[in-house]
Structures are given as structure tokens and as C-alpha cells.
Amino acid sequence: MTARRAAVVGLLLVLALTLQASVLPLLSWQGAVPNLVLLLVVAVALVRGSEAGLVVGFVGGLLLDLAPPADHTAGRWALALLLVGVLAGRLHDPRRPRGGSPLAALGTVAAASFVATSVFALAGLVVGDGDLGTGDLLSGLAVALVCDLVVAPLVLPPLLAVLRHTDLEAAPA
User: Fold this and answer.
1) How far apart are CA 79 and CA 116, in angstroms?
2) What are the backbone angles phi and psi of residue 31, rounded to the nearest 5°?
């Protein structure tokens, strides 16, 4: 990844994390907010592939784990989002620079949200974080999935456009 690409992704990551931690909690629904960092990881993975998705997923997840008001064991979001980055990156097809259809992108967001929230919750059960029952976990999973899908059509197209534009500018002439 070139320095320009890394800087753009870094700025997008800081912006997503800042909005997710400061503005979106004011609009929370049943305690859940849209996961903008997850949407950025999916966008990076779709445009640049699994390796970039893994790196951005790990860094973004670690930032989520450490950003206030984090109340869980550090590393849970890092694990969840690096897996999402790898899985979403497997859908990357360099022969299709446009990234496929918008419906496929929404399907990827739905799968990514399900995987990330499930891994986060299961990691919490393994390490003893929280005392939620299965019903609470399933309802939280559904709420997080809906939140991410509602925001995805507004956030994902601009993210994909910025990332593609950065790739086109960095490509040799």
C-alpha cells in the first residue's frame, strides 16, 4: 500500500471511529449504533482485497477496543474485524474495478455485520466479559445487523468511490 493510500485509509478510519464514538451514540437504537469502522473495513476489503482488509480490520478493531467508553476486554473487536476484512476481501475481484452490484455490497455488509457481532459476542463469552444470556445476544445481533444495513447505503458508496479514486490516482500511467 502506498503512503497516499495508507494516509487516506488512516484519515477515514479516524473519522469513522470519531463519529461512531461521539455522534452516533446520540442516535442509538436499543443500545446499538451503526458500526462505521466495520463499513470501512468492508469497503477497503472490497476494493483492495483480503490483505488490506485484514490490516485495516485489525487496526480499526484495536482502535475500537481502546477508544472510550470501551467496557470490554481489548482485542475482541480486533479479532472480529480482522476476520471480516479477510472474508470480505475474498469477494474482491481485480477484474471488476467497480466492485460489483450495490445489492452484492449490501449482502456483504449483512454477512460482515453478522460475523463481526457474533465473533465479538462469542469472544466475550469465552473470556467471561458480561453476563448476557443467549436471548440478549441474539437480539443484540439482530439490532446491530439492522443498524449496519440502514446506514450502509448512505456510507458505503462514498467510501468505495474515495478508495477507488485513490487507487486510480496511485496507478502508474
Assistant:
1) 8
2) 85, 0
Alpha-carbon distances of 104 from 53, 85, 91, 155, 158, rounded to whole Å: 17, 16, 10, 15, 16
Phi-psi region of 130 (alpha: psi -120 to 50; beta: other; left: phi over 0): left
| Nearest residue to 82 via CA among 65, 95, 101, 106 | 65
CA distance 62 to 2: 22
Angle between helices 3-18 and 50-66 (to 10 degrees): 40
For residue 41, what is its C-alpha cell? 473495513
CATH of the domain at 27: 1.10.1760
Predicted local confidence at residue 2, as pLDDT: 82
**Which domain, by its residues, includes 27?**
3-170
10-residue mean pLDDT profile of the chain (173 residues): values are 87 94 82 91 92 95 87 87 94 63 87 92 80 66 90 93 78 50
> Which one-letter amino acid corresponds to residue 139?
S
pLDDT at residue number 168: 65
- Structural domains of the chain, count: 1
Name the phi and psi angles at 90, rounded to 5: -65, -20
CA distance 131 to 47: 38
d(CA 31, CA 38): 17
